Amino acid sequence: MSSTQKTFRFAIGGRVVAVEGEAASMLAANEAFVRFASEGKPQWRVLFDCQVETPPRDAILLSEFFYEETDSRCLFLFHGEDYYYSMLSAVDGRKLVAMHFKRGSDEVHSTSVNDFNALRFSLWFAVTMLAAPLRLTFIHSSAVVYDRRVVLFLGESGTGKSTHARLWLKNIEGSHLLNDDSPAIEVGDTIKIHGSSWSGKTPCYIPLTFPLAAVVRLSQAQHNAIRPLSVPKAFGAIHPSLPPALVQDDYFADLMIDIVSAVISKVPVYHLECLPDADAARLSFNTIFGK
Amino acid sequence: MKIKPKYKVRHVADENIILVQGKNPGDLTTVIALNDTSLFLWNELSGRDFELADATSLLQGRYEVDEVTASADAAKWLDILKQNNIIEL
Fold this sequence. Notes:
Chain A is α+β, with helices and mostly antiparallel strands. Chain A is built from 7 helices and 17 strands. Chain A has helices at 23-28, 31-34, 116-131, 161-171, 231-238, 250-266, 278-289; strands at 7-12, 15-20, 44-47, 60-67, 72-79, 82-89, 95-102, 107-110, 136-138, 142-146, 149-154, 176-179, 184-187, 191-194, 209-220, 225-228, 269-274. In chain A, a hairpin with a 3-residue loop joins β13 (184-187) and β14. Chain A is globular, with a radius of gyration of 19 Å. In chain B, the strands form 2 sheets. Chain B has a 3-stranded antiparallel β-sheet with strand order 2-3-4. Chain B has a two-stranded antiparallel sheet with strand order 1-5. In chain B, a hairpin with a 2-residue loop joins β2 (9-12) and β3. In chain B, α1 crosses α2 (52-62) and α2 packs across α3. The A-B interface holds A 63, 65, 156, 230-233, 235-236, 239-240, 244-245, 247-248, 250, 253, 257, 260-261, 264-265 and B 6, 10, 12-15, 17, 19, 21, 24-33.
């Protein structure tokens, strides 16, 4: 791979994303993306080093959020069928990246991006827009595999998803981690969980797919207790873990709701109140796998 | 008053629910489950202007209840929608 490489292809859930422009060489030098490198025919293209129009004045702000990794403010707007995403430095207001996507298109256009973390996050954002119509998206969770099926652990940042996942790896023989932050979820006849190039602070980049066995929402407690959730509660447990910026928009919101509906129709969803201990891992394991 | 048109009832795994999305990323999603009576009122009253009395008489027309009970039930239904900012006045 030369440093002047202008195209890099990687897969997400078997779909190939072609990244074109200078950004390609940054991806080709990064383990998280190299592990998912693909020679397949691209389904989607993300074109960097483009001129990206600024949103019209009457564009509607869907979401504005702070992204710590690049110390920047992200804006997501729409106007008609056009979506605009940009990342602005919180220090000097400089634009780190700006992207444009037209609904129904298989391409995202982006300005050049120099910072790897800005590239990494904006590419994640681009993929969420491209993949949503296939009922394929990212779910903020730790994904553990046991007996070739996946359990997803969900929770707000800091509730101990990763900690609980690690307790499985340590205490449940035969379990292994698939992804620690942002696996992809795909809804069809079955619910599939795909490893991805985005795994938070844990470098766990495994290009494999497994069916989903169960979803567990965690909260910290002074005791260990698990219970199955009713349909409305299960909905409320999963929905906030899908890409938050997208659910503010009607078009994407409907696609995200389809995904949650399919999940709760097909697999059990639990709430686990837990301590960070081995008993908590055994309790959730025994409940899900009936051992 | 009116039910805000952006809210839809969704049929998920044999339940009828309304999703109320927080304004900011990371806000929790509120899910309201509708029983048969609530769903009946929702279907009858969405898309038009109505008052508490309209909901009351709908309940009286469908169930054998006196006006006081029907009005109390209708008010309860309306309160939940108002609390979740689903009603525009």
